[in-house]
Amino acid sequence: MARTASSLWRTLKAYQIYGANTDVGKTVMSTILCKAFERSDPAQNVWYLKPVSTGPLSEADDRHISRFTSQIKSHCLFQFDEPVSPHIAARTRPPLSDSEILDGVLKHLTECSQAGPGVALVETAGGVHSPTPSGSSQADLYRPLRLPICLVTDHRLGGISASISAFESLHVRGYDLDAVLQFQDDHYQNYSYLRSYFEKKGIPTVSIPQPPKRELNEEEDIEVMTEYYDKMAKNEGIGELLSELSKRHQTRIQRLEEMASRAYSQIWYPFTQHRDVSEDTILTIDSASGDFFQATDSTVTKDKNELALLSPTFDGSASWWTQGLGHGNPELSLAAAYAAGRYGHVMFAGTIHEPALTLAEKLLKNLKNPRLGKVFYSDNGSTGMEVATKMALTASLERYKWDVPKSDVGILGLKGSYHGDTIGAMDCSEPSTYNEKVHWYQGRGYWFDFPQVKMKDGSWVVEPPAGMEDIFGETHVYPSLGDVFDIKSRYDSVAGQKYRKYIEETLHRLVKKEGKTFGGLIMEPVILGAAGMLFADPLFQHCLVQVVRQSSHIFGPSDVNSADINTWTGLPVIFDEVFTGLYRLGRFSSASFLQVHPDISVHAKLLTGGLVPLCTTLASDSIYDAFIGSEKRDALLHGHSYTAHAVGCHVANTSLNTLLEMDRSGQWQVYKEDWADAAAAPSSSSSAPSTASSETGLEVWSSWSKSFIQQISKSRDVESVFALGSVLAINLHDNERAGYNSSAAAGLQKKLLEAPTELKFHSRGLGNVFYLMASQTSTRETLQSIERLLLDVLS
Amino acid sequence: MARTASSLWRTLKAYQIYGANTDVGKTVMSTILCKAFERSDPAQNVWYLKPVSTGPLSEADDRHISRFTSQIKSHCLFQFDEPVSPHIAARTRPPLSDSEILDGVLKHLTECSQAGPGVALVETAGGVHSPTPSGSSQADLYRPLRLPICLVTDHRLGGISASISAFESLHVRGYDLDAVLQFQDDHYQNYSYLRSYFEKKGIPTVSIPQPPKRELNEEEDIEVMTEYYDKMAKNEGIGELLSELSKRHQTRIQRLEEMASRAYSQIWYPFTQHRDVSEDTILTIDSASGDFFQATDSTVTKDKNELALLSPTFDGSASWWTQGLGHGNPELSLAAAYAAGRYGHVMFAGTIHEPALTLAEKLLKNLKNPRLGKVFYSDNGSTGMEVATKMALTASLERYKWDVPKSDVGILGLKGSYHGDTIGAMDCSEPSTYNEKVHWYQGRGYWFDFPQVKMKDGSWVVEPPAGMEDIFGETHVYPSLGDVFDIKSRYDSVAGQKYRKYIEETLHRLVKKEGKTFGGLIMEPVILGAAGMLFADPLFQHCLVQVVRQSSHIFGPSDVNSADINTWTGLPVIFDEVFTGLYRLGRFSSASFLQVHPDISVHAKLLTGGLVPLCTTLASDSIYDAFIGSEKRDALLHGHSYTAHAVGCHVANTSLNTLLEMDRSGQWQVYKEDWADAAAAPSSSSSAPSTASSETGLEVWSSWSKSFIQQISKSRDVESVFALGSVLAINLHDNERAGYNSSAAAGLQKKLLEAPTELKFHSRGLGNVFYLMASQTSTRETLQSIERLLLDVLS
């Protein structure tokens, strides 16, 4: 969905007129409103816009308005002669896209807003879901504008149902109704039922007499209608409604303007040093669509009446890495509502329901990991990682029966890793800014250094940690990102040999010399997110898993005697794919980049496409078996109240189906082609097929363009950069402070805010790392405009 | 919502015919389907039911069916002469309730199912939301049956929109469409657009020619219609649809029958020793409405074709204590969809959106706790309690600046308390079955014994722990439950004095003699849930808070010098209201029972009315201020990806508004009156107003009846019992094993399953404690039938 402003101005009140059905009198009602607005304040402009009209020009709705009003400025953007649905009428013309219509309406409203105080009515065609010229639904097309709605009900037989269903279709798309407009039919009395229905929802209604029957003689017709309109423009109910509309307009603006200060005094924000926050830095989000928040714009002050109060603001962190299918996605809304309507939440101990079973089966199938056999549900990445850790530690203790206190068993991981904010998940990471002041935190384990992948000055390199060249080898340049992922070719390289030697020696030292005990290996595959978007060398991660699996002799006195190749050996391997999985890096499974199968795999964030919390921890049967015992206490005694809640599971199924279908149907082809040579060059040291194959779903690609990455890597401000999947991470030079304490990213954020552009950003920095994350539905156009801006701003 | 079977039989296929609007040809389409079904298999019965019909008898739809078919058994339950909406037509008759209609349809279908193989069509009136005789919506009335739907689209101008909106209204109520039936209109071509629309959703469609125009001459009319029907009954598309319907019916049953075994092999259940689970013990939930799951019934085997495959099964644990407003509540579905449509999830660091701000303000206002000033969001009770614990520990360390390792600072609590399954929340509880085998768990603190409130043999008693009469006093009998809650009157009693002495001495010993350090007091007010529904003496909890607050001299070297009475003293007090709050015990705040205000208050479960995970941790400003500092690391560095997700917050607002309105409007009056004398007797030792006042919202009451509680407390099997709010807990005698390891509750569950009754249960036992939890919308009728059954089963 393109960037489109949500439309709210201080002195222009704009409304969209929807009908509960076709032919319910939208235009008559619009005419009445126009005349009444004009009458209530002759000084204000009254605008009428019909974006798309079908049927003979002489009967067009904007003509009707002109005929019966004098000062109203009426206008039609696109006119089709045939009196049928626009998607059929439009067949005779060159294609008319949704964004052309949306842009046309916005342009018109923007012009209206600059002409001084006024009211603008935008009348839709047919019913709420009537097709647009492109064949989409009208209610979806206009959604980014999210104008307050005046709904004209259906006063005929059956009209109660039609009116309520029309309302529900608008409601599930996040529209607000400001008024319900009714023609009275005293036989069917729909207006009476509907008045009570809508007033319970706090939506004001007005009921007025129906227009007179049409006269055959045009002159007479005009005469009686003129009389009717004059009378209705003075109707008391209409007058009250106009006051109510004004009040709501004011209230909405006032609330938007006070929300930040109320939030500042009442909300305790996550991960926020409140000393650094003020009312002015809190962004008020009125709604969101596609990649954009519709948010308040701090540059718009009260004396600038003509400026829109809301600005489309790019959701640069993909709402903490969760967003995948666009904000306000109607498919996800309907999925959430369906599951809520069918089940609510049904308890998940000893029961099963379709969404939970389908999701478990879908994940097991698509992760293509023959080790995984069981799915455990929880609420977020942190709880899912605690579950994974409990699984691994118990499984390894059951096998090795170490005679050490349980609390002394640690985990192996990578430096800088982060797995969540609950104490158990924190304990899996070494001390850092995030956890060092947390009571009860105790880093339990050992965290390896590792080489990183970066694009530096136009080249892809694998770079050892500073001063550790003897351990990891010198910085090595690769022709493409695909070559970095070509694990088979790189396996026997000097680096590969060094990696394995280093890991083996380290494990030997830790366990045999220092007497430490470890119960699991935990890694985020490919990219360590919270650490500052560190791109780990996939070969190193591959080797770490491999060496751990071959080191049963180091970890315990006995090992498994299973013929099943899917039984874990060495230590259980946990992959934290909470951030990296489910297409965030361009593939369903980020483990596939490493060419190893974990024993336990954790998935959240994109799992629900960016809608509600849900997490799954998948495990192998050999892990699961460790919890089978004669006592209840042998079981995994973990579970949250809303475990496997139907809403989350069904939304996840819908999201994953959508993502899988995008993958299968080549939706990302343009990006993949851009990065095509990222697929590995023919392997030099091995005749085996390349890792970075061109098999669908296993490409190496990004939605950020390759040429942009190369160009920006040469910027003076930039230390290095990378892009993979929808992730873009720019490592900025900071001569003063490094890592999380650097303010380099904040500096770039400031420059972006001050740039002379209409493109607004919401982004989160990680010290000296500035990152942006697109959704899986971001358009190339949107991303290119961001790339241009970044190139402008960075020197 | 009453207990009503979801309707699914092996040999009877039942469908509900809905129209996208009135007058779209539902009856014509039904006639065609009836004839086609008859033709496809002359051996099967074909039934047609019109539950509610309006308009002249001679034109009634069931008559139409009879006229054009010979073998079809057509029937109408309720006939109104006036051709208007049923809610208007019904005005002339005695009120006709929704449940009468629903029961009538179910009775009819049950009879059909017993007559051998067949098909039954149930035709609705008007559009999907057309009002029923009682004025409710038809789509809501029939929802408990959740028959598969055949939707007749609207083929007229505007019909695309009407058809899609009608579908959406059904979809958000959790209905499944098995077929979309269309009349072709080649001018508007709705059928073509809609075919593609519905096929994308996997719903089969069929399009057939429209019936001939009605002839004026009745005989001619019958003749042309007969010809039309004969032709349509042989229509190829209709034939294919019938096969598809049969296939779907078989597939649905097959899937239901295999789900338990698939789940058994793929799902790792929470809190479950899988050795004790088998395919046969897993309940397959097809849907849920009100208090009832619609679940498979293990007593129905394949040879019993005439029995319904799904049984309404009482959700006895209120879905792990979350359920409040009934499963499948359309208001909550629409709320979820609205927020999803308006926002999706929008990230919550440094931003604000309306649902999150409104919820924060609503909680702050309605908890009526002047200490609370800030709201922190997380995902579930366990994460919310970790947040609370981090808050308390940091605040107390900031104040007292103890020179001890952070990990040595513990908490004070009650024996048996439980606060969640993540490691940090586990550490707040003493060792127990739940946590003793969990790696990294370390109980950090001290947990007090406490006296319990019980009804024993017809009397309310406060009973000390066994053998601790010298510390807590002898068992004391109270005339009513209200007297137990009369803290003011009881404060100076011998028990009150003993409690305070015991607490003071214990604190002195722990801190001054044993050198322990404590950073907070954590309690579940009134009832300790996971411990086995222990009802703590509210006076003891009151005194514990009071003594801790007066003991600054014990806990630290310095104390606060604030004039603000809302500043914490002694230790920060955390109330875990996750289970007990938000009307679970009959009041918005369960702290109100104790007459003390916590410094930190945690709310989840009922917060969203039983739909999706969400948790709030509220804190006082004096807690919050401890996290303000010059460094990011001074902040509370906690936050989950979906923090304050808009769907959860908006659903919570809708739920809380509903609960508050039920309270305000006296929805629970019948229960409150039953328990009226539970309000305290006039206070004897104090002239201050009684604690258990009759002020609205502060009563002591239960939705379980008082006489039932008294009666069952005298049962031989029962050690004691209590009810408060929607909670009923029965402590069963078990001479062999006590507590969590007892199987007494399991024994009662078995008896309930085997009882000769149609009332089916899903319940969770806690060792020797059998509990049931109603929702806040449970009807008296439902609960009374459960009470009768329990009285029958217990001896």
Automatic annotation (TrEMBL), chains A, B:
Cell compartment(s), UniProt: Mitochondrion
User: Listed GO cellular component terms?
Assistant: mitochondrion
Q: What keywords appear on the UniProt entry?
A: Aminotransferase, Transferase
MF terms per GO, please? adenosylmethionine-8-amino-7-oxononanoate transaminase activity; ATP binding; dethiobiotin synthase activity; magnesium ion binding; pyridoxal phosphate binding
Checking InterPro entries in the record gives:
Aminotrans_3, Aminotrans_3_PPA_site, DTB_synth_BioD, P-loop_NTPase, PyrdxlP-dep_Trfase, PyrdxlP-dep_Trfase_major
**Gene3D superfamilies, alphabetized:** P-loop containing nucleotide triphosphate hydrolases, Type I PLP-dependent aspartate aminotransferase-like (Major domain)
**CDD domains the UniProt entry points to:** DTBS (cd03109)
One GO term (biological process): biotin biosynthetic process
Q: What is this protein called?
A: Dethiobiotin synthase
Organism of origin is: Amorphotheca resinae ATCC 22711
